[in-house]
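Hey L., structure's done. Input below.
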Amino acid sequence: MASLKYLDPEGLNRVGNLELIAKQVVEGFLTGRHRSPFHGFSVEYLDHRPYTPGDDLRGLDWKMLARSDKYQVKLYEDETNLRAYILLDCSESMAFKSGEISKLSYGCYLAAALSYLLLRQNDAVGLLLFDTKVREYIPPKAHPTQFRRVLQSLDKLEPGGETDVGSVLHEAAERTKRRGLIILISDLIDNEDKIANGLQHFRHNNHEVIVFHTMDDAELTFPYDRLTRFKDMEGAGRVVANPKSLRRRYLERIKTFTNQVKNDCFERKISYSLANTTLPYDRFLAAYLDKRSRIG
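Output:
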């Protein structure tokens, strides 16, 4: 059996007792722990309403008809699965690392752990890998074999080209018609307005959205102090510069950038969390899920 590098038993054990439950009512198709807003045939009775022409006759309450001669249709409140879609940025900039782990590897570990967690609570999970376009799409399923399929896809993943987060978000929103949970893992190196518009597309479709803004510590702190050659991770540009002359302006710009993305998410009622790759992914995820469970 081939090795699965993102199968981390110790890390999964540390997050395995936490639950990721959507805050919003979601549409699903199997019995589970998430309430659906749609009435259907289920084990949990809710109410009656008068029969109207065109209603499915299977929904009639025949016992009530026999007792009262009234045509009433049964209504139910489905206990349904959550459908979760994990969107992982695999563009060239995600390959950057100043320490032991790249942003892409960190994102892969997050995607694997979230898939494990969601499948463990009988939710359906899918995976979408992208750079300038969708590179691979695994439709959401709740079957136990889905975890291995996700891991195998992550194992063979290599960083791609440039990023077009905004366009991909619109494309993904068109693919995910059924209301559910969207989890975006990306460094979000793209135009902030395009990203905000793409995220809004999901909110317009009534999805709940979580953004894990994955950044390397060097991108956030700019620790360089010697003459350094800087390379554009998504282009051919290179420049040799004295970091001391750039540090203040760079830090101001990165702070403005992260604050803008965070505010865009807040305005759209999207959960935003900055993931610094120096913090082990399981500790980051456990802290996020603990906070999420406490705020309700």
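The chain has nine helices and twelve strands. The chain has a mean pLDDT of 82.

-- N.
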